[in-house]
Amino acid sequence: xxxxxFSALAALLPxxxxxxxxxxxxxxxxxxxxxxxxxxxxxxxKRMKTHANDANNLNALYKTFLDAENNLIYxxxxxxxxxxxxxxxxxxxxxxSRDIAGRDDSALQKKEFADxxxxxxxxxxxxxxxxxxxxxxxxxxYRSIKFPVKLKNGGTGVGAQIxxxxxxxxxxxxxxxxxxxxxxxxxxxxxxxxxxxxxxMNKAAEKITGWPYAEAAxxxxxxxxxxxxxxxxxxxxxxxxxxxxxxxxxxxISGRLLSKDGRTRYIEYYAAPIMDDMDKKIAVVLxxxxxxxEKEHNDRLRYLSTHDSxxxxxxxxxxxxxxxxxxxxxxxxxxxxxxxxxxxxxxxDIFGHYQGDLLLLASAxxxxxxxxxxxxxxxxxxxxxxAMLPNTPYDEAQEIIARIKKEFSVKQLRAVKSSISMxxxxxxxxxxxxxRILEQAEDAMYSNKALERDxxxxxxxxxxxxxxxxxxxxxxxxxxxxxxxxxxxxxxxGLPEDEIRKLREAGYLxxxxxxxxxxxxxxxxxxxxxxxxxxxxxxxIVGYRILNSFDSTVDLTESVLTHHERWDGTGYxxxxxxEEIPRTARIISIVEGYDRMTHDSDNIRAKTKQKAIEILRxxxxxxxxxxxxxxxxxxxxxxxxx
Length: 642
Description:
With 642 residues, the chain is of the alpha+beta class. It has 5 domains: 62 residues; 94 residues, Beta-Lactamase, CATH 3.30.450; 111 residues, Beta-Lactamase; 152 residues, Alpha-Beta Plaits, CATH 3.30.70.270; 166 residues, Orthogonal Bundle (Hypothetical protein af1432), CATH 1.10.3210.10. The protein is built from 25 helices and 17 strands. A hairpin with a 4-residue loop joins strand 6 and strand 7.
């Protein structure tokens, strides 16, 4: 612009014609140049003044903005002397900028803190990078952001902004506490991002799912959290539901989780969305726990509340509830069968409760095979079973009873053959009481049991003796001989017929308790171990229990129980002495001893009659009743057949 103006003025000058004109023109040109120079200088001055004003205005604007900032701002020179501080800085340290300009931090702070601040400043200058540090001061937390600044003199100073981050630090601390809590709690925690991928999982989640976080990170959550709900109300996939725009709230769901190793675990989990500051969903958190043991325990409790713990059939409580629930017109006719297992007490007494439990299990099996799956079968009491048969007329129920009784007849546990007394009643009209039908079925069962009682009792004794003699032919022969000799001894003593009968029967049944012994031990009568001897000695008590179970043999029990007592009181099982021992038992003891000595057994050669008599006399007064011994010896010496 200035050059153009100067060129225009020169164009207005006249063309010279002589030397005088040239001189005048030269002077005029010089004046023109001087005027132009003065003009240009004035123009430049105006521009510089304008620029200076603009710069001052800009600096004032900058200062206004910096002073309006709540954070502390300062500028230091290359010697770390303060060049500029804002109002927030002045207020914080209660000092004006003119009092701090040209000074360092030692004028404001204690030496220890000042050295720390200046150390960070020097780090900025040495590294020419931004340095961010947090400081504790006055019980609060401050964050300084320091950075290199190019100065007008070509050097490098330090600019800084210091802000109060106490709330942020507290929030971060709280977040860290929450994070550490999530990491360390026993429940599994998984965070799923908006894209449905694993963002975080804790150790418990790793254990339950079988997935290490290093492998699971960023995988689709369904690959890791392979969950199947079981009839729960609500969405099938809680995570997908909550990630949707409409999905809201917190969900609690239970079901099965298939872990990485293929194991199925039962879990309960909570799912909830994670929101950002703008209330937008950014993730979903799953908190879950393994409830497999708890579920199995609860399932077991529920099962036991409705089932018999031994047989697995329904229990009485469930049957009564089911009876009411099935008492409908659509189920007519409804038949009820009641059965009472015979011989359970005898089995328990002879062989123990384990064998008794086997009898009950066998009984339950018979009922289940004979009835339909739709029938309700229950263990009604100790040895009683009951079955409700919907849509079953009386004739069909009787056929089922026949099948049950037939199946029982072929079952045998040890020496006790199974049998069952049964009764049945049928509801055919809606007006009839189902409870009354049950009572009628029970009455029919008890009536049949009474009719069968004598047969069952006699059959049980016969079966036990038969099994004992089957295990040992020697025992059978021994029982017959002892029975006959006892009867002869009774006649020799002049006992009444009833006493002779008792002697005969007691002699035959005196070793019935040996049914609990195995065949090898029954046939072994020498070199017994302590354990074997203790087993053998049990047979008197078992015999007592067997005979005490029946009215027809209860008068034989004491004789069978005490036939191994000794005259001197050192026998078993009660250590009775002398005439405390029932006479029948004393006779059996002598007769049995003689018979054992005079017959071969288990590699022991039989003794002669005379030798046996000598041994009887030697033990008279210790093992045997001395008076009865002499009577017995006199009897056998006069009878060559003995």
